[in-house]
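notes to self, project folder thing:

trying the whole complex as one job this time. last attempt i did each chain seperately and stitching them together was a nightmare. two parts in total, labels are on each line so i dont mix them up again. if this works i'll redo the older ones the same way
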Amino acid sequence: MQNFSYFNPTRLIFGKDSEVRLPEEILKYSKRVLLHYGGGSIKRTGLYDKIMKLLSEANIEVIELGGVKPNPVLSMVEEGIRICKEQNVKFILAVGGGSVIDSAKAIAAGALVEHNVWDFYQGKVVTDALPVGVVLTIPAAGSEASPWSVLTKEDGMLKRSFGSGYIFPKFAIMNPVNTFSLPDYQTSCGLSDMLAHMFERYFTNEKNVVFTDYLLMGAIKSVIELGPKLLKDTQDYDLRAEIMLAGTYAHNGSLGVGRIEDWSSHAIEHELSGYNDVAHGAGLSIVFLAWMRYVNKDNIKKFTQLFTQIFSIDPSMSDEEIVLMGINKLEEWYKEIGLPTRLSEIDVPEKVIDSLAKKCVHDRPNPVIGGFKELYESDIINILKVAL
Amino acid sequence: MQNFSYFNPTRLIFGKDSEVRLPEEILKYSKRVLLHYGGGSIKRTGLYDKIMKLLSEANIEVIELGGVKPNPVLSMVEEGIRICKEQNVKFILAVGGGSVIDSAKAIAAGALVEHNVWDFYQGKVVTDALPVGVVLTIPAAGSEASPWSVLTKEDGMLKRSFGSGYIFPKFAIMNPVNTFSLPDYQTSCGLSDMLAHMFERYFTNEKNVVFTDYLLMGAIKSVIELGPKLLKDTQDYDLRAEIMLAGTYAHNGSLGVGRIEDWSSHAIEHELSGYNDVAHGAGLSIVFLAWMRYVNKDNIKKFTQLFTQIFSIDPSMSDEEIVLMGINKLEEWYKEIGLPTRLSEIDVPEKVIDSLAKKCVHDRPNPVIGGFKELYESDIINILKVAL
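result (full assembly):
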């Protein structure tokens, strides 16, 4: 097991009507908040009104910044930073999913420095940040209890991330009812995203991680089992609750301690969504299947352990048969929840593969990605060809 | 799923030589610490010298209070509180296992109030506490990352607990090497204790907790598999590491969210260790087997799910057969790691059962224990008779 240092201070406030705790939690920090949100779905569902009423009754002053889009951008963050500085805002409330939360974290870190916030995405170390709170509406990215923020700089379309203990949200209000209105496709993309966060951690060559392996396999199995059930009954409170919790645990860091994680599929997928704006979860379903087909021979026992467990495949079959059957079952699962499994389904033609692979390793200190198997540009080309 | 509010801010600093981080972590809070420890094993192993050297080199002043015994007592805590108040100590470093940590937490809470610290164990709410840090040497109780403290008041031999977010340790230094010197019996008792913390959470009648059920079953399975391996090779770093991590996760609260936990076996066991000072983990092995035999019919599917998973029992057998086989396999497991499974092995005679059961429900607001199955005095008598 690798040495590690782990902490996660985010308070999860989970359940029906958990929004009522908002004023109490916010008032620990400030009486004036920047309310940060996305495209307006929270106004359609009534969540916006509910929050505004709660804050108003507690005499909390609200300054709004809506309009965050999927793959949040630097220009919006810069606007948020300007507002915080000019209007002396000391707390940011993110209402939405990963994009809104990542944008809020960027504002929180940028509001306390004079230099451009993009410096943090290029390696500058964060030493403080405004407190951020979350009302989660999309279970997927896990940003509600993570120290990570992903942002896109429009100039050059650079997508980069940074992590810092200072940007853990102080709290995450997690009311499963607030996810009832998610379209099926977005629910499925969320399932794929959280599953990917578990896969990226599960696939390691670290040998003595039985305890976290078993936790991860349990987590993966539950998403495999519950995901299709949820899509058949999207207004079921308990299924929504299970998936909401799974999304948070998938990425709060607790399941990945003591091991070198992989993350090459995420890196490759970023190029797909950069190319044609495919949803992150939909890109991940394609990439993970191809990645598994390409790398499984390098540590096949890691695959057979997983597949016999999550798909109850007969362990007396040969390793190769188990892996083939397991990947095929996973492909069926993605199809069952309505996600693409091939590049052709998302209009990524063979002719762009070389340039996507090049961009994927571009600008990195080493032209290699992946903790489970090191992948060079040629490997990424091969994986994308498998995905055709 | 039940509504819940969960957070856990303790920083886990895990791995070889992780003690070197001590000065940096302590100096965030104070340059003067109360060093709290147990019976002197840390002096035999060299850990004491190592810590003293690190603190001395960082010019951290150390005031010592050693001698904490298993089942820590109020009088020692009162002495610690007096030292902290008189000598203006602002940080407590607990070096040891659950008893030392629980004692340190009590001192931390008591040092900031004028009334007796025992009031907190009788329901008074903690509103502040000195910061506590931990160097863990016994993986068992999980106190290194929990908000709980258990203490015994010698007058009346009352054993009580309280929980507060203020007493989460700030950090826990977890170096598996520091557990190499544990005697086998203590290692086994630790395994039983962490397994019990998982069982107490697993056994719930809450229906929609698939995600945490799967995490818990993974955690339980790993202790069942790794425990006997560790006892065959107690100087294996990675096995010690796995078990050390399992002990922390078993009781850090993350696996029990959203469910009503049981805890009746712990309540019953407290009476056993109160009666004849049997080690907590050894009492738990006896009580859990008897509890399982007594209550399984009330929600048998919860048992069959667990046993088919952790012992790979053929799920096509009848529920009753699975449960019988599962409990027998668990009994074999306890025996394999050298723990008692019957009251006769720890000199608790049948004639004292009535008085133990009475004491177990005594002084409670309702004369009932257990979240999975409500147990009255008569049930506790029956369970202890099953354990004879």
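what i see at first glance: Chain B has two domains: 11-178, 182-386.
need to look closer tmrw
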